[in-house]
Amino acid sequence: MGREDRFPVWEASLLAGVAAAFATGLVGVYLSMPHSDYSFLKLPRNLQELQILTDHLEDYTSDYTVQVLVGYCAVYIFMQTFMIPGTIFMSLLAGALFGQIGGVALVVFAATAGASSCYLLSKLIGKPLVFLLWPDKLGFFQKQVAKRREKLLNYMLFLRVTPTLPNTFINLASPIVDVPYHIFFLATFIGLIPAAYVTVRAGIALGDLSSLSDLYDTQSIALLFLIGVVSVTPTLLGKNEMQHGTSSSEVAASGS
């Protein structure tokens, strides 16, 4: 087995160290909270469990705002970093606890921080995992990034707004295909706002949700795709202008 196909000891130690840092933060939050029964504190797997968690945390949010915020961010960033499913429930929770503006700001911050953590971790040790899980998708992504290098921010925005590629894959594969971190950061920060708005708005009326499919109605999906099309338009226009310029040069050269 080659060097690129296995995780050396130091890389496994790095993963363990990052996980330990998050765990330490959560323990600190727990110790600063009043003595009580915290058996309700678990990652929700469905809307019913999310409603139970929300009902309990509402009692703490006003009196222990800082602890709830730190705990929320630590859990969200940890989930994003280590690709743990369920962040959609965390986004709904933000809306239920902090309202529209506060919820969107919190979700965008935590999601961007978690995606950045995943990006940086993948840059160090993620290459074998991405090649193992998505070899074909990685090749496609690499070709698209190479073709759109001059308008890469627009293309990355398009990917963030639309479900063209999974966010987990984008987080892990971006450093491998040489997407610069500043492009990745801006596209993530800006591109996640529309989806965060939709999810947080649904979290405010959590009791009205019967399933996750209620989150994205036809209007919401159409809006997200419209934003995606607008974001990628400069890339397409730039490509057409380049092709037109090349054709004109060829015509001029043949005429001379």
TrEMBL record:
CC annotations in GO: membrane
InterPro entries referenced in this protein's UniProt entry, alphabetically: TM41A/B, VTT_dom
UniProt keywords, alphabetically: Membrane, Transmembrane, Transmembrane helix
Location(s), subcellular: Membrane
Transmembrane segment boundaries: 12-33, 64-84, 91-113, 179-200, 221-238
Membrane topology, from the record: Multi-pass membrane protein
Keyword Membrane: yes
Span of domain VTT: 84-203
A Gene Ontology BP annotation from the UniProt entry: autophagosome assembly
Predominant location: membrane
Keyword Transmembrane applies: yes
Protein name per UniProt: VTT domain-containing protein
Organism: Zizania palustris (Northern wild rice)
